[in-house]
Design goal:
The complex is a heterodimer of chains A (about 200) and B (about 300).
Chain A (H helix, E strand, L loop, with lengths): L1 H12 L13 E7 L4 E2 L4 E9 L5 E7 L9 E5 L5 E5 L4 E10 L3 E5 L3 E5 L7 E5 L4 E6 L1 H8 L3 H42 L1
Parallel strand pairs in A: 2-11
Antiparallel strand pairs in A: 1-3, 3-7, 4-6, 4-9, 5-7, 8-11, 9-10
Chain B lengths: L1 H39 L34 E9 L5 E3 L4 E9 L5 E12 L2 E8 L3 E7 L3 E9 L8 E13 L4 E14 L7 H40 L2 H8 L8 H24 L5 H11 L1
Parallel strand pairs in B: 2-9
Antiparallel strand pairs in B: 1-3, 3-7, 4-5, 4-6, 4-8, 8-9
Helix pairs in contact in B: 2-3, 4-5
Classes of the chains: A alpha+beta (about 200), B alpha+beta (about 300).
Pfam families (chain A): TRAP_beta
Protein name (chain A): Translocon-associated protein subunit beta
Keywords (chain A): Membrane, Signal, Transmembrane, Transmembrane helix
């Protein structure tokens, strides 16, 4: 009992965090967007994470996500949607990043990526696996994004221009009366001194 | 000062009261949810294929319920926590990412419907404490295919440093429409406090306390200073001839700038001149000013 718990703890602490029953390794594939807001004609970074949880090294890993990002809707700026890797060691992490540019705005559904791999060197059978999905994402237009996040310099300039009369006019009134009073006071003093 | 203190105490107690109220509110909701859940799927708590915790509390409670949803032998599920990395120490109030892997070993399609997670009372796993938003997948899994699902949830901050039973189940159906359920994760975990480098709440609490201290110090300083000045200025003024004036006019001459004093003295001389003139002209009219000038002459 105690040894078993120890073993479980060890297994958890070690890099391998899997709970595979059999000897086969399992490849976890995640797919995420790094961007919080996806904007038309602006960079969209998609991150694929591959994690081999199993006891064996997996081979011939092919990722394919062309179906999620068709070329008529997305433009690839950096990276490829069909990367290949020779092997992923057991307990190893692999991250793949693609930078895309959405051409259209609106709601877009990005489905799973398909990954094929071999479970071990001997096992030539090709295993197919789906990644996690991002799901429906809303691609906002550049104008909408600007309205929400741009610095609004022109707006502020206009605002100050419109607001300044309300402040400047009373200030001038006050300043006029003040200077008038001050000149009166100085005149008074001068006359006193003269006396 | 007292008012401020009273106010701060009131706010603190009010906040405490509010938080406890919120917690109770949550529990009520969850209870209602739990009842619904229990109707639908009774005692989902049973060790699945993938779960083999040696210290499972539930082993004794493994009474087979006829109503529970069975798990298909052809469906395999694995999990891995990617945030945080330690599965048995989740951070309360922080986003937790759990990857659930599913594999179809059978010959017919499975449709993964949803993944549900919940926190249970560690002594009694049928008692729900917090339900997490379920992940609607609706993903078809063909034979010998694998799929990864990313399940995100956030344990409530109120369960800081408490052991909790975390149960994550995956619901799926086969092509005939028969429903199955696998328990992906079923373990007692510890919820730890998030060790943030900067906590805004405590930071502003300390600032507030510091401000109170500074204010107290300032008030004390002012009080002491005013006392000392009174004592220092009081002694020599009583010895001086100015003390008389202070008593008479009920003002402290020290406060008045020098040039004002010289100015005010110059008219003093005038009434004496005037007096000499006025006493000569008519005595009845000068009675008022005469009284004042006589005082000044003393």
């Amino acid at each position: 009992m105690f040894i078993k718990t120890q073993l479980i703890l060890l297994a958890l602490i070690s890099v391998v965090l899997s709970q595979t029953d059999d000897e086969e390794s399992f490849l976890f594939v995640t797919k995420q967007t790094v961007n919080r807001f996806i904007v038309q004609d602006k960079d969209l970074t998609v991150k694929y994470g591959l994690y081999n949880s199993g006891p064996t090294t997996i081979f011939n890993v092919n990722l394919n996500d062309v179906l999620s990002y068709p070329s008529e809707k997305y433009e690839i700026l950096v990276g490829t949607l069909t990367p290949k890797w020779e092997r992923i060691n057991a307990g190893a992490n692999l991250t793949h990043v693609v930078v895309l540019k959405p051409k259209q705005s609106g709601i877009s559904n990005s489905s799973h990526a398909i990954v094929t791999y071999q479970k071990s060197e001997k096992n030539t059978e090709v295993q197919k696996t789906y990644s996690s999905e991002i799901g429906d994402v809303y691609i906002m237009t550049a104008r909408e994004y600007d309205r929400r996040f741009s610095s609004h310099v022109i707006d502020w300039v206009l605002f100050t221009a419109m607001a300044s009369p309300c402040i400047v006019f009373p200030f001038f009134l006050w300043f006029k009366s003040k200077s008038k009073y001050e000149s009166l006071l100085s005149k008074d003093k001068q006359t006193k001194k003269a006396q | 000062m007292k008012l401020v203190r009273l106010f701060s105490f009131l706010t603190i107690f009010g906040l405490l009261f509010f938080t406890t109220r919120v917690v109770y509110g949550n529990e009520d909701q969850i209870d209602a949810d739990a009842e619904v859940d229990e109707d639908e799927q009774e005692t989902v708590v049973q060790p699945g294929e993938t779960i083999a915790p040696a210290n499972d509390i539930l082993e004794g409670k493994e009474d087979e319920d006829p109503n529970r949803i069975p798990s298909s032998p052809d469906f395999r599920s694995v999990y891995v926590f990617i945030q945080p990395a330690k599965a048995n120490e989740l951070v309360a109030g922080k986003l937790t990412r759990l990857l659930v892997g599913a594999r179809n070993n059978g010959t017919q399609n499975f449709v993964v419907e949803s993944i549900e997670g919940s926190l249970r009372y560690p002594q009694d796993f049928s008692y729900y404490i917090q339900n997490f938003t379920s992940l609607r997948a609706d993903k078809a899994l063909e034979p010998s295919l694998e799929s990864t699902f990313e399940y995100l949830f956030m344990p409530s901050e109120t369960f800081n440093g408490r052991p909790m039973g975390l149960v994550v189940v995956i619901n799926y159906r086969n092509s005939e429409g028969k429903r199955f359920q696998n328990v992906v994760f079923n373990q007692t975990i510890n919820l730890t406090e998030a060790d943030e480098g900067f906590d805004g709440e405590t930071f502003f609490l300390y600032i507030f306390l510091g401000a109170i201290l500074v204010l107290l110090g300032f008030v004390a300083y002012q009080y002491l200073l005013s006392n000392r000045i009174k004592r220092v200025t009081g002694k020599p003024s009583s010895q001086n001839q100015l003390g008389n004036q202070q008593v008479k006019g009920s003002y402290d001459v020290d406060w008045i700038p020098k040039h004002h004093l010289t100015q005010s003295r110059s008219p003093k001389k005038n009434p004496s001149q005037r007096k000499s003139r006025k006493t000569a002209s008519d005595a009845s009219e000068a009675s008022g000013t005469g009284a004042a000038s006589s005082e000044l002459d003393d």
